[in-house]
Amino acid sequence: MAQTKPPYGSVLIKADHILEFLSRHNNPQRLSDIAKQTELTNPTALKILNTLLLIGYVQKDPDTKMFSLGPRLIKYANKSLHQISIKQIAQPHLEQLQKATTETVHLGIYELDHIKYISKIESKKPVSLYSEIGKSIPLYCSAMGKAVLADFTDQQIEHYLDHNALVKKTENTIVTTNALYQEINKIRTQGYAFDDGEHDFEVFCIGSSITVNEKNYGAISVSLPKYRLTDAILTDLISNILICKDNIVEELT
Fold it and tell me: Which long-range contacts (CB under 8 A, 24 or more apart) does 112-119 make?
């Protein structure tokens, strides 16, 4: 029987075992324990740890000489989750939201003081809405944008307003800071935001922000022509978007 050749760069596999071991423990670990649990000799484990230390994947307490995961590795993990996985995590829940509401559903991320569409599920109803993946819309006059603003601190909102003019898009657009703050306070209480013809006059949109442990991952929304909106439909939209939000948040925690 032919022997299976060891994979090229097998030291990386040993490094992965070390990182996996450290990730399972909240407290820093001794070299001897790391070596024992990863089935390595102390010298081999130390050589790998010193390399991981050099590139920031682990950190070493100068007093206790114990090791834990490093900030550079955590930075990469957070960036991957934010930029790549949020769409993958949200997609099945967005599909369920679209089935429940039968209207157009979006996922957007906060980028450069705007909301950028990264996913869209189109309504099959006769009238659809113009939006496209990659398009960016302002925060102050969109449901997703206002929902994200509501998760900002007051200082962050003040900074946003200092650098972004409230331009009138339609006759319904909020163009004063006092009115926007009133809207934000209401959103903070209820957990969702409306765009009642503020960006496109004939379009109504409801949005909710996806924020976990003060970290924002984006926002979701349901959009429809205003002529289709009734009190019963609005109640249904609110219920379904909050269910969708809770399901996504649960996967992120």
Answer: 112/136, 113/138, 113/139, 113/160, 113/163, 113/164, 114/138, 114/139, 114/145, 115/139, 115/142, 115/144, 115/145, 115/148, 115/219, 118/87, 118/218, 119/87, 119/90, 119/91, 119/94
> What are phi and psi for residue 155, nearest 5 degrees?
-65, -40
Question: Exposure of 192 by Cβ count < 10 A (0-12 exposed, 13-18 middle, 19+ buried)?
Answer: buried
Q: In whole angstroms, how far apart are CA 189 and each of 4, 113, 184, 253? A: 61, 23, 9, 22
Chain segment 30-89, per-residue pLDDT in tens: 999 999 999 999 999 999 999 999 998 999 998 999 999 988 876 666 555 555 578 889
Structure token pair of residue 131: 């939006």
Question: In the β-sheet with 215-225, what is the strand arrangement from edge to edge?
Answer: 136-138, 114-121, 104-111, 215-225, 203-212, 193-196
Q: Rounded CA gap, 100 and 237, in Å?
A: 9
Distance separating alpha carbons of residues 141 and 143, to the nearest angstrom: 7
pLDDT of residue 86: 86
CA 101/CA 109 separation, integer angstroms: 22
Return d(Cα 91, Cα 152) in angstroms, integer. 25
Of 198, 189, 191, which Cα lies nearest the Cα of 139?
198
Token pair 């249904």 in the structure block, residue: 236
Residue 19 is encoded by which pair of tokens?
Answer: 């990182």
Q: What is the DSSP string of 53-91?
A: HHTTSEEE-TTT--EEE-HHHHHHHHHHIIIIIHHHHHH
